[in-house]
What we know:
- The protein is α+β, with helices and mostly antiparallel strands.
- The chain is 52% helix and 14% strand.
- It is built from 10 helices and 11 strands.
- Helix 5 packs parallel to helix 6 (238-286), helix 6 (238-286) runs antiparallel to helix 7 (294-321) and helix 9 (372-389) runs antiparallel to helix 10.
- It is elongated, with a radius of gyration of 52 Å.
Amino acid sequence: MKIRITYRLFLVILAAAILTVLSTFFIMQWSVEHGFRRYLHNVEQTQFARLAVRLESGYAAQGGWDYLKNEPEQWLRLIAETFPQGHPRPPEEQPQGGPRPGEHDREPRPLLPPPMGHPPREIGRMFLLLDGNKQPVFAPAEIPADTTLKPLQYRNRTVGYLGLLPHKRLTDDFQRRFLKDVQSALSLIAGTIVLLAAGFALPLANRLVRPIKALAAATERLASGEYTTRVPITSTDELGQLARGFNSLALTLEKNDQTRRQWVADISHELRTPLAILRGEIEAIQDGIRPTNPDAIDSLHGEVLRLEHLVNDLYQLSLSDVGALTYRKVELELDALLTGVLATYRPQFAAREITVAATILGEGTDVVFGDPERMRQLFVNIFDNALKYTDPGGTIAVRLTYQSKLAAIDIEDSAPGVPPGDLERLFERLYRVEASRNRAAGGAGLGLAICRNIVEAHAGTITAHPSSLGGIWIRIELPLTGRC
């Protein structure tokens, strides 16, 4: 049988309360009984010392113990006078501010009542009296070894011994009744605390479990695809942190779902365009509207190349996402690689009358640890974008500089530019600024996304900023050898 977490918490809290109460009960019971016995022992010792003084005075007055041997009743009467009957004064009757003047001079009142209900003869059995030679005057046949003996002095010599027989249990009904009342009070307190703990444990368990139930229900909705599900944050403790973590997870899943849907829609749209063109031109040729000549074949070939390029980009991007894109890193001179890629694009820039201003520094000792082919693909994608999206007659500036631990590549182009709010989105898949850098110029919006994956695989960063030339400024930072 499964026990609900509410009842588990209830049982745990209740068990903890019961264990605490029982431990406190037994400790208090032992402490009270032990303290009470110690208190009785101290009182007995006080009365014992007083009885010794009276015996010493009697010995001095009578000159020996014969007066007690001849009249045993005097022994019992002496004990009864030392332990007078009566109860101690209640606390509220004690004078405030300490004792009254002269009060210390009077005979002190008894601290506890005598063993009420016991005849004087029975009280006398608690004490024994020995003479100076430790011969019994009043004593049992066998004296226990742990009997307390107090020497009785007269003129600096020991004339006798007063003994207090040990007793292992309380012999007074009043004393036993007192301890029983204390134990009853402790039992009542313990029972009351347990009942109160049981009364508070169930509401407390419900309160603790309520946010967990809400999280469980929200998790079921999230698992069913309701990514807009959120849970309220009602505390700052661990449950509140769990709720915030759940909301963050739900938000991430919601964004990922939106990205996935947009990704599928964009890919479908990108694939439909070249396929529609191919279908239209092929049907035109089939219907005889367009003659089958080299121009028609070149047009069909161009659309196939465009479609192949898009599929290759998607494949490269998917490999990078799953970590399957291979990298063969070696120490390479970045200046030579960048100069070589730029040299292949200079004729194309010249054809569009785009001026190239290059400042590429290198001393042969500044190298990075990277894959030459992937780095070449990185620069090719960036120069492709610059070639497609820079107006004829514009300018492209390329700079390579070295810092203490980084190599910085800056590539800027002239107008048209990109709104500042769209700069961060340039590295998203299939994203294009339709106002100026649109599909008519070619490309599917995957080049910069691939560039970002390549740079991050080399432990670097790539960012986009507004360019002083009027276009965009792409900045790449790569760690020098041994830093990635």
